[in-house]
Amino acid sequence: MSAATLTRTTARTCPPWCRKHGTDPDGSICHEGEPITVQAAGGGNLVAGEVDLYLNRFDEYGITGQAAIVITASPDGIDLTAAEARQVAAAVLYLAEQLEATR
After folding, report:
1. DSSP string, 47-92
2. What's residue 17's pLDDT?
3. Which residues contact 99 (CB under 8 A, 6 or more apart)?
């Protein structure tokens, strides 16, 4: 988002999972869901970091955009143990259920 300021909202135009949104000067709105963070402990030859997941929808020119799950890792290329990978998978499934419930 450009110079948008994120604010909490309960506006009816927001999807039910929206926890904050920003409005760009052209009227576009970016809705964001509550982030889920999975910590990767690292150790040995494993790279530590975290994986953040959240729902996002970008509405432009009065048209409702397509919602998606955003997944970011910091740093790029972190290593996950099997248990950490299961946590990420569980978070993806949880967010997918939220998306399907708001179709």
Report:
1. PPEEEEEEEEEEEBTTB----EEEEEEESTT----HHHHHHHHHHH
2. 93
3. 55, 67, 68, 69
**pLDDT tens digits, residue range 32-47?**
999 999 999 998 899 9
**Overall average pLDDT of the 44-57 stretch:** 94
Residue ranges of the domains in the chain? 6-101
What single DSSP character describes residue 75? Answer: S
Indicate the average pLDDT of the chain. Answer: 86
Amino acid at 45: N
- Three-state DSSP class for residue 48: coil
- Residues sharing a CB contact under 8 Å with residue 9, sequence separation 6 or more, in sequence order: 18, 20, 21
Is-contact 101 87, C-beta < 8 A? Answer: no
* Residues recorded for the chain: 103
55: nearest Cα among 35, 29, 39: 35
